[in-house]
Amino acid sequence: TGALYHPLPRALEISADLVGTATPMPRVTALAARGPVWHAAGASEAQELAAVLASIAAYLRAAEVAGHGPATTLAKIEVQLAADADQFVTIAKLRAARRLVWRLAEACGSGEAAGHVRLVAETASRMMTRRDPWVNMLRTTIACAAAAMGGADAITVLPFTEALGQPDAFARRIARNTHLV
Q: Which of 26, 86, 122, 140 stands the most exposed, by the fewest C-beta atoms within 10 Å?
């Protein structure tokens, strides 16, 4: 149901400008290749990875037109993937993402730049249930653990009442504390 604010060619021009603006800032990521959007729409793990890689390739092409090399651009891209309650599939997906990004970077002649790409996991919204939200605490805990075992650099745990609407203070606290466990 989403849409781009600008037409795709203009959006890619803007993304290339962001790479140039953020280049002097070594710890800033300017672009995100988001998989959770595709996952929430029903994509399989392979389809989510394919969409993320296609996004990275589009960013690399747009940045190349603007005069930015692949190593510079890859350092400014963050890969975001959904983590769900199927822990072994989530671990495999995150590990495969690292390898696929490395292969893409290698194909561009900047294999070592793949090490600078941050891998971020977010617990999947499509695994949340409205009828028994308390079970969502178990789901998010498993997804968080799987993301950690899969090698995520950062993990976002959604509140267990996400499917019910705006989370209350307790749900936000539980989501925040899940990382600590």
A: 26
- pTM for the whole structure: 0.89
Residue pair 157/144 in contact by the 8 Å Cβ criterion: yes
